């Protein structure tokens, strides 16, 4: 009996560890209930918000900043602070009222342009690299749910971004289901 216990106990612990590890290393499901989830792949590697330290690891807001110009600003941002180099993804939509079913091209992300996206966190000899969408490297965000009563924004996204050295970062299979602030 003791011999069987010595065999089964390590196998059971290994299986439990492996099963829990697999669950943590997956994208969150595509939901639309305000579950405050965010995830994607960056160059094929899983990116989910995690870690601690100063500041939040997920932010989503929708605000009227420029009332005379229908100037709504929507931003969703997430950080992975678990490693030596913090990583961040941010998507900004400027001067546009958000609604369900909206598909927005991610380009510059500067005032007067619909939207843009950025990724930061790759460490280079010259510091942390920041990658941005522009006219040549684009992306897209789809708003699948936008509930202004319960303040829920949910959707999908992807983008390719470039840094100052011409390197690219490919963000794929992005999804979010967030409660936003006003």
Q: Care to describe what's here?
A:
By secondary structure, the protein is mainly beta. It has 1 helix and 11 strands. It has one helix at 2-24; strands at 37-42, 45-47, 58-66, 71-80, 87-94, 103-106, 115-124, 127-132, 139-147, 152-162, 168-179. The protein has a 6-stranded antiparallel sheet, with no helix packed on it. The chain has a 5-stranded antiparallel sheet with strand order 3-4-5-7-8, with no helix packed on it. It is globular.
Question: Keyphrases for this structure?
Answer:
single chain, mainly beta, six-stranded antiparallel β-sheet, five-stranded antiparallel β-sheet, 1 helix, 11 strands
- Class of secondary structure makeup: mainly beta
Can you give the helix content as a percent range? 10-25%
Count of helix runs: 1
The largest sheet is: 6 strands, antiparallel
Run of helices and strands: HEEEEEEEEEEE
Rg result: 19 Å
Let me know the average pLDDT. 82
Overall, the morphology is globular
Estimated share of beta-strand residues: over 45%
Low-confidence sequence ranges: 4-23
């Amino acid at each position: 009996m003791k011999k069987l216990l010595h065999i089964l106990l390590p196998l059971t612990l290994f299986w439990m560890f492996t099963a829990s590890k697999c669950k943590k290393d997956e994208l969150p499901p595509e939901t639309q209930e305000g579950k405050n989830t965010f995830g994607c792949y960056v160059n094929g590697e899983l990116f989910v918000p995690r870690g601690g330290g100063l500041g939040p690891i997920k932010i989503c807001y929708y605000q009227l900043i420029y009332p005379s110009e229908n100037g709504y600003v929507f931003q969703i941002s997430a950080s992975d602070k678990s490693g030596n180099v913090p990583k961040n993804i941010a998507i900004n939509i400027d001067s546009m009222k958000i609604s369900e079913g909206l598909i927005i091209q991610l380009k510059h992300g500067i005032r007067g342009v619909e939207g843009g996206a950025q990724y930061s966190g790759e460490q280079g000899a010259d510091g942390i690299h920041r990658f941005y969408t522009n006219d040549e490297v684009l992306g897209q965000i789809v708003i699948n749910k936008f509930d202004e009563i319960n303040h829920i924004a949910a959707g999908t996204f992807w983008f390719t971004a470039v840094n100052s050295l011409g390197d690219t970062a490919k963000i794929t299979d992005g999804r979010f289901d967030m409660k936003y602030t006003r």
